[in-house]
Automatic annotation (TrEMBL), chain A:
Gene3D superfamilies: MetI-like. Keywords: Cell membrane, Membrane, Sugar transport, Transmembrane, Transmembrane helix, Transport. Residues 1-21 are annotated as: Disordered. Residues 1-15 have a biased composition (Low complexity). InterPro entries: MetI-like (IPR000515), MetI-like_sf (IPR035906), UgpAE/MalFG_permease (IPR050809). It holds the Pfam family BPD_transp_1. It is found in: Cell membrane. This is Multiple sugar transport system permease protein. SUPFAM superfamilies: MetI-like. Belongs to the binding-protein-dependent transport system permease family. It is a multi-pass membrane protein. Residues 89-303 form the ABC transmembrane type-1 domain. It comes from the Bacteria.
TrEMBL record, chain B:
Residues 1-21 are annotated as: Disordered. GO terms for cellular component: plasma membrane. It comes from the Bacteria. Gene3D superfamilies: MetI-like. InterPro entries: MetI-like (IPR000515), MetI-like_sf (IPR035906). The keyword Secreted does not apply. One of its GO terms (biological process) is transmembrane transport. Pfam families: BPD_transp_1. Keywords: Cell membrane, Membrane, Sugar transport, Transmembrane, Transmembrane helix, Transport. Signal peptide: none annotated. Belongs to the binding-protein-dependent transport system permease family. Its main location: membrane. This is Multiple sugar transport system permease protein.
Length: 314, 307
């Protein structure tokens, strides 16, 4: 006891200065919170609070007879046995299974080709492939809606060139592919730029070494370039996965053109939107939104966990 | 190695530094590559070309024009259409466009400022709770932002903020990805020694940030600004849920409304030419911004992912 109280009273001179320095240092570190603070407030207000509130709302139910009351996990039991919600989940999972590989493949091949060229045409192509990213999803969907439409679109003319009838792009059986096409058009260029920039940051002397060893261009691309940029690939896949699972804008916009082919509850997000704003069932809508959020979070976390070796996140 | 580089430099007439060894391949494959690229360009540009052409057509010209869907009609109606945008529904289109600018810049600039500050704080200070806060931030990148729209709507309606500009601007200030990118970039681009040197010279923490760190962060700032502005400009779900007053809508929600009305069929409501022209005009500013600023974002976009 005496030793512990006495100890700070007679410190060695060297330690005293060191302590003063760490004191200044730790006072300085508090500046960190001042810099992070403004963002932390927004984060708490518009991410933590809505998430918490959604969860709280999802535990309650509002009925005309009894008012709002606590029902525990009843809403979740209802959601995960709600055929509409499950069908929506299955549908976005289907979109993810098709759309993510298609987008990434287009982006990867384009980036690999661009990486082997330095011509003016390749620079021009790079920009043009990227341009759709600057077009809002609503405008992209509107535009493709026009292009698909038999009344406005060039499909009849283009298919006529080879003597075929244009298919109906907006029928219940074809609208899936039509939506995949819109999203690919919109996002492949962005992913391409990310992958391309990653490719450019690889030290080119590795390729030279492989070439001396007799590797062909294709082998270099598949065996060296792709593994070298695997962390960027993982990141791009995660973004594309998260985007696809919360699919909303494109089907919502296309709905008024493709009457009948896209129901109002086509995706979980559209279902939650219509529950909230057409039927005022905010508690159940929050349940759907929160359940979707959890599914997305688990899905992307699982993907990151399975690819932790490739992404370098451990 | 030296000889090959010199040979190639002689062949192409360029400095060896600009050469990447894998770029020099036989002519056959390069033609194939270029054809492939041209096909991609056609696919990605054709819809935009269609939109440009369609914006020069009158409402009936869109259906029965003599130019076909992919070429101009003999009748050129772009100016009439622009005039139409100024009169239809009392010229509300230009108001929508103005709203889009307001939301995108207020939300985007705000989110960027918050990201710069927080990214710098995370990268350069070891404050209490930093590890936990950053883990929370990383996890939140995976939270789908659309899942927040409905609860945010209910929360904001308790404060009478729905159907105001704040309902769109305030939630747009949140950009976890922006903070993450700024932190990664700050860590690489701003050496601790430089900050310490400035401190030894007697500069305060704010001065160190503004005069030493900030100028080094410019490329990342442009990238994050572009990402956040585009994110807000393109957002659809949030304004669709938050706003009912037609005067407050951004151009995306407004045009979608016109399109739904036109499809619903009422004769006087069919304004296809105004939708195409409005859509074309609305995408010009961002395309121009991207082309003008390409020097910055092309490198910056990949930065967070290379790590």
């Amino acid at each position: 006891m005496t030793t512990t109280t006495a100890a700070p009273v007679r410190p060695a001179p060297v330690r005293a200065t060191r302590r003063r320095r760490t004191e200044i240092d730790s006072r300085r570190q508090r500046w960190g919170w001042l810099f992070v603070g403004p963002f932390a407030i927004v984060f708490a207000t518009f991410l933590i609070a809505p998430l918490g509130y959604a969860f709280w709302m999802s535990l309650r139910l509002k009925t005309l007879a009894t008012g709002e009351r606590f029902v525990g996990l009843e809403n979740y039991v209802k959601a995960f046995s709600d055929e509409i919600f499950l069908r929506g989940l299955l549908r976005v999972a289907g979109f993810a299974a098709v759309m993510v590989p298609v987008q990434i493949l287009v982006a990867l091949v384009a980036a690999l080709v661009l990486d082997t060229l330095t011509t003016r045409l390749s620079k021009f192509s790079r920009l043009m492939i990227f341009v759709p990213y600057a077009v809002p999803a609503v405008i992209g969907a509107l535009m493709w809606g026009f292009l698909y439409s038999p009344r406005f679109g060039p499909a009849a003319d283009l298919f006529g060139l080879v003597g075929l009838d244009a298919p109906n792009f907006l029928a219940p059986g074809t609208v899936f592919g039509s939506l995949v096409n819109i999203v690919t058009w919109q996002w492949a260029g962005y992913y391409m730029i990310v992958i391309y920039a990653a490719l450019r940051s690889v030290d080119p002397s590795i390729y030279e070494a492989a070439r001396i060893d007799g590797a062909t261009g294709r082998q270099i691309a598949l065996r060296i370039k792709v593994p070298m940029i695997s962390s960027s690939m993982v990141m791009v896949v995660v973004f594309s996965l998260i985007g696809t699972l919360q699919f909303f804008t494109e089907p919502q916009v296309l709905r008024s053109i493709a009457q009948g082919a896209i129901p109002v509850d086509y995706t979980p997000n559209m279902y939650a939107y219509s529950l909230a704003f057409s039927y005022s069932q905010f508690n159940y809508a929050s349940t759907i939104a929160f359940a979707l959020g959890v599914v997305v979070f688990i899905g992307s976390y699982l993907f990151l966990y399975l690819t932790r070796k490739q992404s370098g996140l451990k | 190695m030296a000889t090959t580089l010199a040979d190639r430099a002689a062949q192409t007439g360029r400095a060896p530094r600009a050469l990447r060894p894998d770029r020099e391949v036989g002519g056959g494959r390069r033609i194939g590559s270029h054809v492939f690229l041209l096909l991609l360009v056609v696919y990605f540009v054709l819809p935009l070309w269609w939109l440009l052409v369609a914006s020069t057509k009158s409402n009936s010209g869109l259906f029965v024009g003599d130019g076909g869907p992919l070429w101009f009609n003999s009748e050129f109606s772009l100016l009439d259409n622009l005039r139409g945008l100024g009169t239809h529904n009392g010229g509300i289109y230009w108001r929508w466009l103005g709203n889009s600018f307001l939301y995108a810049f207020a939300g985007g600039i705000g989110a960027t400022v918050l990201s710069i500050l927080a990214g710098y704080g995370f990268a350069k200070y070891r404050f209490r709770g930093r590890t936990f806060a950053f883990a929370l931030l990383l996890g939140s990148v995976m939270v789908p932002l659309t899942a927040l729209v409905i609860p945010t709507f209910v929360l904001l309606s308790k404060f009478d903020l729905v159907n105001t500009v704040w309902a769109v601007i305030l939630p747009s200030l949140l950009s976890p990805l922006g903070v993450y990118l700024m932190r990664v970039y700050t860590q690489d681009a701003v050496p601790d020694e430089m900050l310490d040197a400035a401190r030894v010279d007697g500069a305060g923490e704010l001065r160190v940030f503004f005069q030493v760190a900030l100028p080094l962060l410019r490329p990342a700032i442009v990238t994050v600004l572009l990402l956040t502005v585009v994110g807000t400009w393109n957002n659809f779900f949030l304004p669709l849920a938050m706003l009912q007053d037609p005067d407050l809508l951004p151009v995306t929600v407004g045009l979608n409304g016109w399109q739904a009305l036109s499809n619903a069929g009422a004769g006087g409501e069919q304004v296809w030419n105004l939708i195409t022209t409005g859509a074309f005009v609305s995408i010009l500013p961002l395309i121009v911004a991207f082309l003008a600023l390409q020097r910055y974002w092309q490198g910056g976009l990949s930065h967070g992912s290379v790590k």
